Each structure stands twice: as structure tokens, then as C-alpha cells.
Amino acid sequence: DLVGGTGMDVRSKARTLPGPVDDPSKLPKWNFDGSSTGQATGDDSEVILCPQAIFKDPFRRGNNILVICDCYAPNGEPIPSNKRYNAARIFGHPDVKAEEPWYGIEQEYTLLQKDTNWPIGWPLGGYPGPQGPYYCAAGAEKSYGRDIVDAHYKACLYAGINIGGINAEVMPGQWEFQVGPSVGISAGDELWAARYILERITEIAGVVVSFDPKPIPGEWNGAGAHTNYSTKSMRSEGGYEVIKKAIQKLEARHMEHIAAYGEGNERRLTGRHETADINTFVWVRRGEPRRVGAGGPRHREGRQGLLRGPEAGVQHGSLRRHLHDRRDHHPLQG
């Protein structure tokens, strides 16, 4: 499984191996035509796939596996869309390993009717009743698509993804699953594997999964990927002060991070519908971008963590800002 040139389109191809493999380093590299995915030009189109993480295949089952790969040019250089490469370098640094960074990612998404791109359960060309009764709801008049959601949940559990749970969201036809807590780069690998499995499940169901931050304009909630993050220092005695210092570092580069989270987020972050304005950095109170857990010094939740953002970039930014005041202080900054 790989990510295409848009940063959100998930691609895959299959191959046969001589026997079972449980270590990505023992898998062969492969290749694909990058000119067909927006990741290379037609006159030099070969892109190399390097296996990085293995999950059990919930579709073929048996000894079959799903493999998360990142992408390189034939000369061994990571291609521009390979955000995992720099993130892996950061997570591999001894200072980072010592901090044991945990991530819990809340991935929201919307299920759409294939032929109309309108949310499932909504009247064709019309609207359901106002938001309010749909969040975490049960019942045919309030909950749309649970069979798809539960199939995805079970498939992720089978695959070995650290999926924490699922729930219906505020807008009808919108759902969420949670990955984590997972340590370091594994959180991004698990999230992309879960997104891929969701694409496959909805493909079988004849439904479209949308990761758009604001699929329906107007008085409807958008969709995000709220990112809960903590380090060993944050989880220890005195961790609340560590959290506050990390938030101050993030605030200094707020717009840089917003730019890294993908397109369309200005349609969601308007100051309404449980969001803050995209240009505003505030924290503590729920409904605004940065929130510290009410249970004490345990985690910091980035509520600006947006659905279309490349997950490795979100992780990279949070770690870099926590561990270092300025970009030029980071020993691995490229």
C-alpha cells in the first residue's frame, strides 16, 4: 500500500511470494509507474517501493499480508511525497526514543452515496433534521452506515492495527475511528493501513468514503483527525509544565503547521461547529484547537489536526516543536 501524488489517494498492488514473511526487512523492494500517480514524469517514471510495516490481510486472510511501503527514486533518494522518510529519521533519534512519544489519532470520515456524492441516509437532494441526535446514536432514523463501520472495525482488529474504538459523529453519515495509543512512527503506519482497509470495505459496499474536511457546506460539522500526543516527560510528575512549554513552541509556528495539513481546511476551521478560526491559536478549552486533557498532565490534543493532513507530517511537526525551540537546533532537520 502506498500514497499517491495528492497525499491522500491510497494505491496498492499485489504480488506473490515464495513463502510467509513476518519482517518487512525480508521483503523484496518493488516498483511502479509514478507518472500514473502524479509522483514522477513520463520520461523517468520508475518509483521504488520499500516495505516498512506488515499487517495481516483481512481480505485474503491465511498467510497473506498487507505491507505499508514508502517511495524512492531509483537513485535511492526519497521522492517529494514521501513524508514518512523524515518522520522516521526523527523517531529514530535517541532523544526521541527516550521520550517514548505516544499518539492517539481520531480519524473522522463521511460515507457518501456513490452516484450522487451525497451522505448516506440523507434524502436525495435534501437534508435530514438538524444536528443533535446523531452523535453516538443508535436507530435507523439516526445512524447510517453502521454495517460498514463495524466491518472496518473488525478488519482492523484482525489486521493487528491498534484501533481503539469507533463512534458515530455529529453530522449524520459521518463516523470516527481511533488509532492508538501507538508509539512513534507506528501510529502513522497504522493509521494509513486503517484508511486503506476502510477504502476497501467501502469499495465492497459500493459507498464512497470522503476525507474532505468539510464535505457539506453550511450548518454541518466538518471532519478532522484530532491528534492526541504525549511524551514520557509529559506523563511524569511535573508534566503539565512540559505540556505548556510544548504548546508555546507549537504556537510560534502555527501557520506553518496549518499549511502542512493539506488542502481545504480553511472551509472547516471557521470558528463555528466546534472549531476555532484557522488563523487563531488558542488552547485549554474544548472546541478550540489545542486542548490539555482534563484528567491532568497526561496528553495534549491537537484539535486543529486535520483530516487531510499527511500523518507523518503531523507527527514530525509535533515532535520537532516539543523537543527543540528553533528549527536550526534540530540535529536531523533537513
Automatic annotation (TrEMBL):
<keyword id="KW-0547">Nucleotide-binding</keyword>
<feature type="region of interest" description="Disordered">
    <location>
        <begin position="289"/>
        <end position="334"/>
    </location>
</feature>
<feature type="region of interest" description="Disordered">
    <location>
        <begin position="1"/>
        <end position="43"/>
    </location>
</feature>
<feature type="domain" description="GS beta-grasp">
    <location>
        <begin position="1"/>
        <end position="76"/>
    </location>
</feature>
<dbReference type="InterPro" id="IPR008146">
    <property type="entry name" value="Gln_synth_cat_dom"/>
</dbReference>
<dbReference type="GO" id="GO:0005524">
    <property type="term" value="F:ATP binding"/>
</dbReference>
<dbReference type="GO" id="GO:0004356">
    <property type="term" value="F:glutamine synthetase activity"/>
</dbReference>
<dbReference type="InterPro" id="IPR014746">
    <property type="entry name" value="Gln_synth/guanido_kin_cat_dom"/>
</dbReference>
<keyword id="KW-0436">Ligase</keyword>
<dbReference type="Pfam" id="PF00120">
    <property type="entry name" value="Gln-synt_C"/>
</dbReference>
<keyword id="KW-0067">ATP-binding</keyword>
<dbReference type="InterPro" id="IPR027303">
    <property type="entry name" value="Gln_synth_gly_rich_site"/>
</dbReference>
<dbReference type="Pfam" id="PF03951">
    <property type="entry name" value="Gln-synt_N"/>
</dbReference>
<feature type="compositionally biased region" description="Basic and acidic residues">
    <location>
        <begin position="325"/>
        <end position="334"/>
    </location>
</feature>
<feature type="compositionally biased region" description="Polar residues">
    <location>
        <begin position="33"/>
        <end position="42"/>
    </location>
</feature>
<dbReference type="InterPro" id="IPR027302">
    <property type="entry name" value="Gln_synth_N_conserv_site"/>
</dbReference>
<feature type="domain" description="GS catalytic">
    <location>
        <begin position="83"/>
        <end position="334"/>
    </location>
</feature>
<dbReference type="InterPro" id="IPR036651">
    <property type="entry name" value="Gln_synt_N_sf"/>
</dbReference>
<dbReference type="InterPro" id="IPR050292">
    <property type="entry name" value="Glutamine_Synthetase"/>
</dbReference>
<protein>
    <recommendedName>
        <fullName>Glutamine synthetase</fullName>
        <ecNumber>6.3.1.2</ecNumber>
    </recommendedName>
</protein>
<dbReference type="GO" id="GO:0005737">
    <property type="term" value="C:cytoplasm"/>
</dbReference>
<comment type="similarity">
    <text>Belongs to the glutamine synthetase family.</text>
</comment>
<dbReference type="GO" id="GO:0006542">
    <property type="term" value="P:glutamine biosynthetic process"/>
</dbReference>
<dbReference type="InterPro" id="IPR008147">
    <property type="entry name" value="Gln_synt_N"/>
</dbReference>
